[in-house]
Amino acid sequence: MNKEKRIQILTRLRDDNPHPETELNFSSPFELLVAVTLSAQATDVSVNKATDKLFPVANTPQAIYDLGVEGLKTYIKTIGLYNTKAENVIKACKMILDLHGGEVPENREALVALPGVGRKTANVVLNTAFGWPTIAVDTHIFRVSNRTKLAMGKNVDDVEQKLLKVVPAEFKVDVHHWLILHGRYTCVARKPRCGSCLIEDLCEFKEKTEYDA
To answer: What's the CA gap between 9 and 116, in Å, rounded?
Structure first.
């Protein structure tokens, strides 16, 4: 895919959604960190149902740490892998309290050092909470980038590096949200809804469908 076509795709996505936001509910960098940690192999809807009950009770590192692992589990037990996630969140709270004065660090290395936080989670927090031009590549973004030929790669790290290289600076802060929403609702895994896609004529996917319901 050439540069001109990439810019056309990104411009259309921006025109359609000038101020994209995550679908996870949060009101602070710490709430976002917890929500993204819980969202691994889970839907945003299921995470929101849990955090909508958790955050009014405990939404700071100290408050969640005080719940303890078992206490936290009572709020997140509807989410997949909740046992491991509860342990990781409690450990992360302890590290944030001990090493970062109770504040989520605005630093990738410090973030990925927290239990349960990988590069993708760190990128989401840096981008969504702090406005960094990072691109967190999940399954949706990996699929859309490869299928459209916007930025092809064999794994999520390859796609991330390719996107960082080919996406112009003016689009970098929001491209994560545009691509994830496009993959979640239009360029879906089983059968993409090409008939209702605003970039269908620019996409280089060869097996386009007429499905647009």
So the answer is: 34
Catalytic residue among 85, 138, 162, 174: 138
> Could you tell me which CATH number the domain at 3-20+134-196 has?
1.10.1670.10
Domain boundaries, the chain: 3-20+134-196, 29-128
CATH topology assigned to domain 29-128 = Endonuclease III; domain 1 (1.10.340)
**Amino acid letter, 138:** D
Q: Which of 85, 120, 162, 174 is catalytic?
A: 120
Give pTM, 2 decimals. Answer: 0.93
The residue type found at 185 is Y
pLDDT tens string, the chain, 213 residues long: the values are 999 999 999 999 999 999 999 999 999 999 999 999 999 989 999 999 999 999 999 999 999 999 999 999 999 999 999 999 999 999 999 999 999 999 999 999 999 999 999 999 999 999 999 999 999 999 999 999 999 999 999 999 999 999 999 999 999 999 999 999 999 999 999 999 999 999 999 999 998 887 555
Q: Would you put residue 55 in left (φ > 0), alpha (ψ -120 to 50) or beta? A: alpha
Q: Is 138 a catalytic site residue? A: yes
Any catalytic annotation for residue 154? Answer: no
